[in-house]
Amino acid sequence: MEKQKIVLLCTNLNGTGGTAKHIVQTYHFMDREKFTPSIVFASLSESTLLEFFYKHGCSKEDLYSVPSLSRSPWGQYFSLRKLWKKIQPDIIHSYFLHSDILSCLTGLKDIPRKRISSVEGQFIWDHVNGVGGFKNFCYKVANGMIRGKFFCTITVSKSLKEEVVQGGGVARRIEVVPVGIPLVSDQLLQTRSKDQEPVIVCLSRLSKDKGVDLFLQVAAILVKQAPRVRFKIAGNGEEEKTLQELCSNLGLDSHVEFLGWVENTTDCLNDADIFVMPSRREGCPLALIEAMMHKKAVVGFDVAGVNEVIIHEVNGYLVPAFDVNAMAGSIAQLIADPTQREKLENNARAHALAYYTIDREKELLEGIYSE
Known about the structure:
By secondary structure, the chain is α/β, with parallel strands linked by helices. It has helices at residues 18-29, 46-55, 73-87, 97-105, 133-146, 158-166, 212-225, 240-249, 265-270, 286-293, 324-336, 338-355, 358-370, and strands spanning 4-10, 35-41, 63-65, 91-95, 114-119, 152-155, 174-176, 199-203, 230-234, 256-260, 274-277, 297-301, 317-319. It is built from 13 helices and 13 strands. The strands form 2 sheets. Strands 3-2-1-4-5-6-7 form a 7-stranded parallel β-sheet, sandwiched between helices. Strands 10-9-8-11-12-13 form a 6-stranded parallel β-sheet, sandwiched between helices. Helix 4 (97-105) packs across helix 5 (133-146). The longest helix has 18 residues, at 338-355.
């Protein structure tokens, strides 16, 4: 059987967050007897991305950087057309609408033989992420024009599948393939003593859509009820300074620790009693799934993405969207009831192992590639 050449394309990859990690993970888990993968990307921080790819074991021969759209729109277009002639890909697998558009615009006759699109975050952005009005309209028009050109559109959640359907255009096929995460062995898991002061952790990019400001409001309510409770926020982002100022204004400096970027999430999560997901919306909430894999009781708002992972009172607690008092109450209940917390911890890990492993994602994705 001849190997298929797969290009993983992202033309606006400006950080080393979830999408970059997922692309690397996909690159690595492909069966090299069936597929020859390469990564094509454009970024305003090219050197940072290349360092990231090298650090995570990507071969230099499989990495291709093209000019960013803001610096050279035509340069990006012609660079991609030139690359397709060189690589001769069987499949171009693009991430996000910007890359989808370029996948369609730069294709050559019979190259690629197949296009696949991945939707991993909010499909049509809104004002929370700085996009509204006319630009939002343009995204919908562009989606309507290109969606039918893809052999398959892959979304990481059911809510994103619905968003693609409502975003205009007729997709030939839409499949839900949740992101898989690495297994964490039982030997690496640690359970904190119930006699220790409770530690509540939020692992998140510090941006508006992640709702860390709501987490701080929850903390302000909880410290009045349980002065010994401590909070840790792991992550960085554009809202870091604003959130630190909010923390001080709420009088939480002695209760909240900003950890910054955390490389070893296992150590961070092992030091948690309860994990909180305060996002205003999610695609596939990887930090939440990681916490469940690490056998942690989890609490999240009942919003898109999160409510597909948490089953209320079975493997975690869902509280009404953005109700900080309800979230504080749920956390207080878990602090006071170690037996319920242990039940949720066990069920959370079992759920993550059943539905969110790399092996499961690999099986589903390679099945689509092979058709």
